[in-house]
Amino acid sequence: MTIEKEQDVVPFRNRVKEHAVKIGMSILNQTKLITAASELVRNMLKYAGGGVTTIEVLSKGRENGIRVVFQDKGPGIKDIKQAMQDGFSTGKSLGVGLPGAKRLVSEFDIKSIPGEGTTVTIIKWKNG
Amino acid sequence: MDRIPILRMGKFLLVTIQIDLYDRLATNLESDLVNMVNKTGARGVLIDISALSIVDSFMGRILGNIGTMSKIMDAEAVVVGMQPAVAITLIELGLELKGVHTALNVEKGMELLHEKISFDEDTLDEADYENNSE
Ligand SMILES: Nc1ncnc2c1ncn2[C@@H]1O[C@H](COP(=O)(O)OP(=O)(O)OP(=O)(O)O)[C@@H](O)[C@H]1O
Ligand SMILES: [Mg+2]
To answer: Domain spans of chain B?
Structure first.
């Protein structure tokens, strides 16, 4: 899904929700996943002017989960360790987005190359 | 729809959020509420978010701003009906709703507003009394 404006946020969240419902994820885990996804899609809009998201169902043994990938061609992040700290923000904001999203999901991966862009991947297992 | 209706009930303003809000709607609500508190001199603002399935840092900030702005204008803001899953998620995200009170439902929220405000008025009365007796 292409994300280029603020109005894309709610439909994107609904798409994530549809996937989570499809695998029977609990309301609590759905809420955590969608909230994390919302933070990441907002970062993509705010700092990279948009990007592309992919949502898919995963299986590992008997466990199902949802993977969401956020890919942008924005300015990238110079110091990922610093960006992942609670309270760090270059946007005069609270700096909860990245560290908070990480806490809410089962697996979190961030890769960024300054000048080329940022890719964040999250996985929430159904029972994770 | 680009505005959420605000109901006036005596000294209070009531808002029921019925859908997941687009950012524009949320920021409009913030400024509409602030204007309305200012214009009407309302003493309390009650926001029912029981239909919200998600509160992310953006929405959290809007609710916090409404609380802070209300305080500045001598009003109290209470958020009611937050889904348990939303409350748990907010804590894990690391967001505190500073500046707003929270209550289980509309009824409890109204009670809370009444308490806060009558307490205020009692202390005001006392202050007047002391001034008069000087
Ligand atoms: N996709 C991105 N591209 C470039 N920089 C980013 C991206 N996502 C995050 N950042 C950088 O990482 C910092 C931390 O992000 P985080 O989401 O934790 O906080 P924030 O967005 O500044 O504040 P909040 O999310 O609380 O509103 C941002 O301030 C920004 O500098
Ligand atoms: Mg952010």
So the answer is: 6-133
